[in-house]
């Protein structure tokens, strides 16, 4: 019984072994040492230990589970970062991504030079690079490329496993050194003013003679900044404004805009009253007797991908939409805003009209709990097709392919960004996305560790293993320190954003957690999200190009 369940190769045995490795790895991954935990990455080492003690599964099952786990992980990651990928290049995103690419190119160049200088096989050094940068998708791309070239794939996994631990802590050490030796007071970022770039609500008194007698449409054209007026008070009565509503002296209007644009609205309309509409204690539902305000969730698939103005809700039902909540971000309800499944729309109007709009938009929260498996399977299939297409590059002996790691992540980013425009429902709850990512990554790491475990410890204590560790630590530390200091001194990037950028370029969420605990504000997290997608894609592609060109 024991032998058939744990030792004899079968589909049942493979599932049991992988499940136990994942469970043990996730359990011990929560343990913190000096404030740092490996999280799901510990599954990798649990697989190594199991492989060291002779545990194995059928080779075809191992290959399938490893490939499927990698595809699930990178695709769900791409879908998550997709919606904010294009916008990440605004507000300094180009600069951060350029510096992040400098980190990547410098580390890759170091590995190629070390391979030639120390006469070490390039596949081994590519594994060192993947471990030093804690980048498992790049390791997957490396193994896929070697398999395509007819070369053994075990060596990169071994060198990656040996160098991975110092790769995790190396970025943290670099951040500590920068803060101790090079960070000055002027390098620390000022905290973000509240509501500067988010939706801001204020009451304005109409005092500018230039807008007296003008309708809302002409006022909007004159303002040239996005805003919404959701309510108008006149002579003690509340009015639901439309494009034809005329402003009169003494009117009070409830304006929704960004805080920076609110100054323009004050100049154009009149002074702002001292009423705080932006705290969570405002009872919007019972603000007026005549009008009600309700949050309605878009759950009808036919609304997905349509522009707000195309629904003509104001003209058809006599309501206003003041703002929209999407993934924790408050958006201004402009006519050209493209709606997505899961958006929470704030509707203002009479009770009967709001109820009719509710039927149009759906507001059936139970439907959001149903996973959109169709879009997931379509995305994975398209990603694998894209990953298998050959791309000819000058100087490469063989055509480059994005492979299992690159193709799905590119398609995931594109679907996450543009899927709603094609009326493809990409919405998933945050917990569902994290579940898919965690399942895929743990499955991949368990198989990867199991495959590398048989010779890990003997290699780790050998002279070759020690050289891998030393070279890997240099690949982790030097690019991070050089580009981090250059970013602060030459490009005047604040230290918090530098930390997030470096963690994103090195694909190191554990270091990001340390950075968030060490610096104030959310600059580090924002920079990480800005740099991570392009950096991950670049590392996956570079891993293949280097092997094609230099082997």
Description:
56% of the residues lie in helices and 9% in strands. The chain has helices at residues 2-6, 11-28, 42-52, 59-81, 93-117, 122-132, 136-148, 154-181, 216-223, 259-268, 313-317, 351-361, 365-368, 373-388, 403-418, 430-452, 456-460, 463-489, 495-505, 509-518, 523-550, and strands spanning 199-205, 228-234, 237-239, 252-258, 292-297, 320-326, 329-332, 344-349. The strands form 2 sheets. The chain has a 4-stranded antiparallel beta sheet. The protein has a 4-stranded antiparallel beta sheet with strand order 5-8-6-7, covered by helices on one side. The chain has 21 helices and 8 strands. By secondary structure, the protein is an alpha+beta fold. It has 2 domains: 2-190 and 374-550; 199-367, Regulator of K+ conductance, C-terminal domain (Alpha-Beta Plaits, 2-Layer Sandwich). The longest helix has 28 residues, at 154-181.
Give a short synopsis of this structure.
It is built from 21 helices and 8 strands.
Q: Specify the structural class.
A: alpha+beta
Order of SSEs: HHHHHHHHEHEEEHEHEEEHHHHHHHHHH
- Residue stretches low in confidence (pLDDT < 50, at least 5 long) are 190-197
Any idea what the radius of gyration is?
27 Å
Number of domains: 2
Widest sheet: strand order?
1-4-2-3
Total of DSSP H or I helical runs spanning 4+ residues: 21
């Amino acid at each position: 019984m024991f032998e058939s369940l744990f030792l004899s190769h079968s589909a049942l045995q493979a599932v049991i072994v992988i499940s136990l490795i994942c469970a043990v790895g996730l359990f011990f991954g929560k343990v913190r040492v000096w404030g740092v935990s490996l999280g799901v990455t510990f599954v990798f080492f649990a697989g190594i230990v199991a492989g060291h003690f002779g545990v194995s599964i059928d080779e075809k099952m191992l290959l399938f589970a490893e490939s499927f786990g990698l595809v699930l992980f990178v695709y769900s990651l791409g879908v998550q970062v997709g919606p904010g990928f294009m916008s990440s290049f605004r507000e300094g995103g180009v600069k951060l991504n350029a510096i992040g690419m400098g980190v990547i190119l410098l580390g890759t160049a170091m590995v190629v030079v070390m391979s030639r200088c120390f006469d070490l096989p390039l596949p081994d050094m590519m594994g060192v690079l993947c471990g030093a940068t804690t980048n498992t998708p790049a390791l997957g791309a490396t193994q896929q490329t070697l398999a395509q070239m007819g070369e053994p794939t075990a060596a990169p996994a071994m060198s990656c496993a040996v160098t991975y631990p110092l790769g995790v802590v190396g970025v943290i050490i670099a951040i500590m050194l920068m803060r101790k030796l090079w960070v000055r007071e002027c390098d620390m970022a000022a905290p973000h003013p509240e509501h500067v770039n988010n939706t801001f609500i204020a009451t304005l008194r109409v005092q500018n003679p230039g807008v007296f007698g003008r309708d809302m449409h002409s006022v909007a054209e004159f303002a040239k900044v996005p805003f919404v007026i959701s309510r108008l008070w006149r002579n003690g009565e509340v009015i639901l404004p439309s494009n034809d509503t005329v402003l009169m002296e003494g009117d009070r209007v409830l304006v929704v805009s960004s805080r920076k644009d609110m100054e323009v609205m004050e100049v154009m309309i009149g002074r702002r009253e001292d009423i705080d509409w932006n705290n969570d204690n405002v009872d919007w539902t019972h603000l007026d007797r005549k009008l009600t305000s309700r949050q309605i969730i878009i759950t009808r698939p036919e609304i997905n991908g349509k522009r707000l103005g195309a629904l003509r809700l104001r003209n058809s039902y006599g309501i206003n939409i003041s703002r929209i909540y999407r993934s924790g971000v408050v958006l201004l309800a402009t006519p050209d805003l493209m709606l997505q499944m899961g958006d929470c729309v704030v509707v203002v109007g009479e009770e009967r009209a709001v109820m009719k709009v509710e039927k149009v938009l759906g507001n059936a929260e139970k439907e959001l709990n149903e996973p959109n498996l169709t879009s997931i399977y379509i995305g994975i299939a398209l990603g694998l097709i894209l990953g298998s297409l050959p791309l000819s590059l000058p100087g490469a002996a063989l055509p480059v392919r994005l492979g299992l790691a690159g193709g799905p992540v590119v398609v995931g980013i594109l679907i996450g960004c543009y899927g709603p425009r094609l009326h493809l429902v990409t919405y998933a709850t945050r917990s569902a996305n994290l579940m898919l990512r965690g399942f895929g990554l743990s499955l991949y790491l368990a198989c990867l560790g199991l495959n590398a475990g048989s010779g890990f410890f003997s290699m780790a204590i050998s002279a070759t293993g020690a050289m891998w560790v030393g070279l890997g630590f240099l690949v982790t530390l030097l690019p991070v320190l050089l580009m981090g200091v250059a970013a602060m001194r030459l490009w005047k990037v604040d230290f918090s954003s530098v930390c997030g950028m470096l963690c994103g370029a090195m694909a190191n969420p554990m270091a990001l957690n340390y950075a968030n605990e060490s610096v104030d504000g959310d600059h580090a997290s924002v920079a990480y999200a800005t740099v991570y997608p392009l950096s991950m894609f670049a590392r996956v592609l570079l891993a293949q190009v280097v092997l094609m060109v230099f082997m």
